[in-house]
Automatic annotation (TrEMBL), chain A:
It is found in: Membrane. It comes from Capsella rubella. Its main location: membrane. Residues 111-130 are annotated as: Disordered. Keywords: Membrane, Transmembrane, Transmembrane helix. It comes from the Eukaryota. Belongs to the CDC50/LEM3 family. One of its GO terms (cellular component) is endoplasmic reticulum. The keyword Membrane applies. Residues 111-126 have a biased composition (Basic and acidic residues). The keyword Repeat does not apply. The chain crosses the membrane at residues 20-41, 277-299. This is ALA-interacting subunit. Pfam families: CDC50.
UniProtKB/TrEMBL annotation, chain B:
SUPFAM superfamilies: Calcium ATPase, transduction domain A (SSF81653), Calcium ATPase, transmembrane domain M (SSF81665), HAD-like (SSF56784), Metal cation-transporting ATPase, ATP-binding domain N (SSF81660). It is a multi-pass membrane protein. It comes from Capsella rubella. Its cofactor is Mg(2+). Residues 893-928 form the P-type ATPase C-terminal domain. Residues 45-110 form the P-type ATPase N-terminal domain. This is Phospholipid-transporting ATPase. It holds the Pfam family PhoLip_ATPase_N. One of its GO terms (cellular component) is plasma membrane.
Amino acid sequence: SRFTQQELPACKPILTPKWVILTFLMSGVVFIPLGVICLFASQGVTEIVDRYDTDCIPLSSRDNKVRYIQGLEDKRCNRTIMVTKTMKNPVYVYYQLENYYQNHRRYVKSRQDGQLRSPKEEHDVKSCAPEDTVGGEPIVPCGLVAWSLFNDTYDFSRNNEKIPVNKKGISWKSDRESKFGKNVFPKNFQKGSPIGGKSLDPEVPLSEQEDLIVWMRTAALPTFRKLYGKIDTDLQAGDTINVLLQNNYNTYSFNGKKKLVLSTTSWLGGRNDFLGIAYLTVGSICLFLAVFFSILYLAKPRQLGDPSYLSWNRSAGGGRG
Amino acid sequence: MASGSGRRRKRKILLSKLFTLTGAKACFKPDHSKIGRSGFSRVVSCNQPDSPDAESRNYCDNYVRTTKYTLATFLPKSLFEQFRRVANFYFLVVGILSFTPLAPYTAVSAIVPLTFVILATMFKEGVEDWRRKQQDIEVNNRKVRVHRGNGNFDFKEWKTLRVGDILKVEKNEFFPADLVLLSSSYEDAVCYVETMNLDGETNLKLKQGLEVTLSLREELNFRDFEAFIKCEDPNANLYSFIGTMELMGAMYPLSPQQLLLRGSKLRNTDYIYGVVIFTGPDTKVVQNSTDPPSKRSMIERKMDKIIYLMFLMVVSLAFFGSILFGISTREDFQNGVMTRWYLKPDDSSIFFDPKRVPMAAMFHFLTALMLNSYFIPISLYVSIEIVKVLQSIFINKDIHMYYEEADKPAHARTSNLNEELGQVGTILSDKTGTLTCNSMEFIKCSIAGTAYGRGVTEVDIAMVRRKGSAMVNQSNGISTEDVVAAERAVKRFNFRDERIMDGKWVTETHADVIQKFFQLLAVCHTVIPEVDEDTGNISYEAESPDEAAFVIAARELGFEFFTRTQTTISVRELDLVTGERVERLYKVLNVLEFSSSRKRMSVIVQDQDGKLLLLCKGADSVMFERLSESGRKYEKETRDHVNEYADAGLRTLILAYRELDKNEYEVFTERISEAKNSVSADREALIDEVTDKIEKNLVLLGATAVEDKLQNGVPDCIDKLAQAGIKIWVLTGDKMETAINIGFACSLLRRDMKQIIINLETPEIQQLEKSGEKDAIAEALKENVLCQITNGKAQLKASSGNSKALALIIDGKSLAYALEEDMKGIFLELAIGCASVICCRSSPKQKALVTRLVKTGSRQTTLAIGDGANDVGMLQEADIGVGISGVEGMQAVMSSDIAIAQFRYLERLLLVHGHWCYRRISKMVSIIYKFRLTLTFRNTFLHSV
């Protein structure tokens, strides 16, 4: 058949100078505007970042932050944030942790997905060690990930008027509906010692514990943001926002930073200039190459497929052994 | 043979009596004294394989196994082979580790791909071995007649033969084991043996039994036959054999002259009786065979290197990762202070325990090795294997490489060398059966200074085609019409000339010379005619295809040789005077046979008038000097014609005769019998001297030109391959002259090329060989070869400036020295500098050695192509062995990597398939590697910290 005789129609473009220049030119022309659009979209996103880990430690405790954070005193802390540009709703509230290895192999594996999904598998806590049982009873949700749940809280107010934070719908829908059971309730959680992070209300099923759901999607990099909630009102330029903050979470023992982030989104997502810059760079390289090749082609043209340029013809004397 | 038994003829021709040179009397040589000592301890009690003595010796049976595995050893052995591959072994280790809690993933995902790969490869191996097994079964179950006792011979399977059995082997059968010849259908116990499978020589070898046993010609004679043979232990040397036979209390020496080797074939002899002395694995041919090496293509070897590199990268990645891991783990819990508290370092398993950091780091190292195993692409092997199988299917199915006449498509026997085809730098080619068809055609002759014959040679056809049809060769006036008309009516005969065909030669001016010329062709040979009783047609059995071509030519021109008796040759020929066809009887008195040193053959006959004639044919180099003054009448013209023929790639022979007077002949017979009966060491020299004296003062008749027919399209193909920058070496067992002829014929050599000929056949060297000791001779010869090579190199240097191409022609003897350790470097340099290289008279071993030299020395991919069993070594040694699945048995094909039907398909195989396969495979490999690299770096940076 024509297949076995390898005679199927085939087409193989020959890279003639004209083709090459045209291709580069085309990609340059397409990429640069794309880059500009992306960059523009990214620039349109307003983002406010406030690092508070050090500032929220009283000056007297600064030389031993770990003892302070592990202490029992009230860790309330007030922060003020200036809004420089109007932020249209929804405004997303994130917390950002740095130098926090949610991707550590031990950490990642220390969880039991079956247990989260259905109460029948409650006793399956093998992979959760050492946070598996307390007094012989299984912990739900077990494992290091759940145990170390982030427990700082933020309350926003503007001119002494509270800004409500919507904490519904911050996790993935699929997680809520199929990975975390509606009939699974926290049991024996944070009953052992030491206590890792936030405690959970044992009356609320896991599928509604959205902070937990967000936290359980472990981050791939040591610097990560996780969604805390949404503010459904616009923030005007010049607004001063007071944040009443419960500084509970210990990042001080491993020198991790904590940041509060307020950000709007564009059609491209959050603020990220990378895509636009990448498009611009590649586009300009293509354009430059197109110009360079055209100059080369005009100044010093050579015949296509000249056999004298082949490696064995080029070596002196033609002495290919 | 079925037809052979139907018309068995009683031939009572004592050829050995006529033959002057062979049929040497057996005599004890010093080596025989070694019998019974170590290395010469074998004892065979003939005809009593059941005796307790034989039982106690416990020689192996005649079962020959070529398979790699048996049923029992298949599993362990093939598994071992599999895990010798680095990647497989690595994955095995990873697979075992994946059952431990160290594993970052489940065990299944590690084991399944490995199991698949290994099972697939093992299956392939198994199927290949199964095929070999089938072949073994076929060979081992062939039947041969064996003495059962009381003079009865029954058919038995080959594998059941035992040492000491008496066999009866019939015409055209292979010998099932190494035998000592006892007697044959000829009264003097001679037989003809075709040893093509052993050494590739196409001419028949004459073997002769001992005088004491030649009377055992009937089956009944063996009823009470009893003898003991003591001989050397099994070894691989094909050309030596030392033994003694003890028969009725007397000792008789045995030599290679009595030894019939497994793998050779009985020809021109109705039957022989022989006793089995070496069986199965002890036989010389099996001892000679080497295990087929497993060949790997360059891409695969390079891939292996890259895998080592990647392995190194994986290890170093894992190593650095573990160090970093160790450091950060140590910091997790120091002096009772936890840093990364969320990992609970105070309550940790061993793998992450900050208190036992070195252990944890080590375990992490293992885990990281597993994690990064993505780096080493196990799937690559599977993908490559699949792609290669597809490519072999493409090769097998290619209609352009399908040989319709024999219904043979190309066949890629091993799929792992496909892409290597595109990388071939040097082709080492056999000649007979590969470049040529091994059929000779009588095509031209020059009689009395007149050139006859305007047959068209392959070379001419190629030339005409190349230069356009308008070209007309002046000497013989070829036109395209002739090219078309080159259909042959008679095999081995392609002679066309109205002047002398159909009996018209009588009208030519030199009719008498023409008559003598063809009489000579009809008489001066050792051919045996065979008359088909039904049709009356005569077929000829000849020692070499040339001779058959001559006899057929004589027949076609009206000199029909039809019977040979012990002393006579009968020829039907035209009487010049009466113009009638008469039968003439020639009494053959002596045959002075052909040998490579004599380069001529003569017979002395007495015709019906009682005239004594010496008829002689031989190579031009020896014949012209033997002409008498009066016999040189046509010398100049003949010389011109011979040169012309040689340029066209034809084999030429000069024919000459001489009338002897009675006295002279009597003196000769006296001397020759004296020489034959002398027992001294210089007996052969004496005989030479006597024959030399009589083959003198000859009268020139003319010259013949025989075409060693090239296969279709060979010159074209060679031309194209040369254009592609591929070098072609011809390695042949033939004589130098023949090899050079063929070189011209297939456009490897051209007139404008400068030939560097290195040989040791010069008179002074032969002189040297006769005197002095062995060591001294070897030393001198080596010196000589070195000197010739150095001269050649000097020429090479001198010609490197101008464009004149050089051709190197070297003979086997010099090659033996040139291939020695200290000389092969310089030899290779010379050879590589030359445009064409021809090695003649080379043994199978030398062919393999040359191949190895080229392979290792020039670092190029070598391709060996051949069709005979003598090419097996070469095919196995080369990077790629291509077998021609032609007429000469299947040994070459069996040991080749790719089998094609015709040489010309090499062009498509190399330039089309090789090119495509290489491009496609390399693209695939590079893409898979890049993909793996990306994957692993992602893994490393996201997970391993």
